[in-house]
Predict the 3D structure of the following.
Amino acid sequence: MRASEIGGLAKEELQALTGLKAETVSSVQKQGDHWDVTVDMIEMHVTPNSRDVLAIYDVQIDPEGMVLGYRRMGRYVRSQVEISRE
């Protein structure tokens, strides 16, 4: 699978698993026998949207496109310039 396919798959799977809306794929890397994908998910919509709370999720996907696991790595406010990781 191509990196773009893996990124799209990670977004779809995380949306199905968490019930949250995927915002963007911020990284896709091949790590030995699996892919590591980082996806930013919207955890809370706020008005104005610059105050939305987003979360960074790390997803591991095998070569066949199956999710091996995922975890939330941190949270941030959309307007935040620097993100701290949990």
